[in-house]
Automatic annotation (TrEMBL):
Gene for this chain: Gatd3a_1
InterPro entries found in the cross-reference section: Class_I_gatase-like, ElbB
Domain of life: Eukaryota
Annotated source species: Herpetotheres cachinnans (Laughing falcon)
Protein name, per record: GAL3A protein
Length: 224
């Protein structure tokens, strides 16, 4: 039997949900590793809905579970029903939904609140010493919950290639060790069984982002 890996989504679309290419890359690489993905999302309203053409919020309301089901092709469960006992690992792709729907990082930064369900799931996998894979902005969840952990969101010096590098500085303020890595690289916190990669925190070609996520997934499955 292949490893059973929970994949937690935060909606559908980079600006208000899970980043679709990152989510797809996670699912493709899990399949390639012979692992079984079980997709979950919280049954809550999104913080807001963004028009992805204009990059502006709209008056629309959408549900995180319903939107995430688009990526999961309908094969998805309510995060409240996740049981860590039957699962071998956890992966959370990035996208602004992580910072808006799974936490309040987008509006409060290091003073954010993590959604109760999301925090409980992360703590359960951590307590069971089961690996957790995080990419793009999702490492901030671990930074908030596991002080002293080691993570990467890419680089800590802002430039055209690394437009979100200030995130690394904020994570350091939470007491984490940030490790600079290229987009095709991962960082493994052996003690905490955390595997992180920068993905779209880097302004890089999509195949490099895909490759970095592939290394993260491969390591998570290996540790499981």
């Amino acid at each position: 039997m292949g490893k059973r890996v929970a994949v937690v989504l935060a909606g559908c679309g980079v600006y208000d949900g899970s980043e679709i290419h990152e989510s797809s890359a996670v699912l493709v690489h899990l399949s390639r590793e012979g692992a079984q993905a079980e997709v979950y999302a919280p049954d809550v309203d999104q913080m807001h809905v963004v028009d992805h053409v204009k990059g502006q919020p709209t008056q629309e309301k959408r549900n995180v579970l319903v939107e995430s089901a688009r990526i999961a092709r309908g094969n998805i469960k309510d995060l409240a029903k996740l049981d860590v006992k039957g699962l071998d690992a956890l992966i959370i792709p990035g996208g602004f939904g992580v910072a808006k729907n799974l936490s309040t990082w987008a509006t409060q930064g290091k003073n954010c609140i993590i959604s109760k369900e999301v925090e409980e799931v992360l703590r359960a996998f951590h307590a069971a010493k089961k690996p957790i894979g995080l990419c793009c902005i999702s490492p901030v969840l671990a930074a908030k919950i596991f002080p002293g952990c080691e993570l990467t969101v890419g680089h800590d010096t802002e430039c055209e290639k690394w437009p979100y590098a200030k995130t690394a500085e904020t994570m350091k303020e939470l007491g984490c060790k940030h490790v600079n890595k290229h987009v095709t690289e991962i960082h493994v916190d052996v003690k905490n069984k955390l595997v992180t990669t920068s993905a779209f925190m880097c302004n890089a070609p999509i195949h490099e982002i895909y490759d970095g996520i592939g290394k993260m997934v491969k390591e998570v499955v290996r540790l499981a």
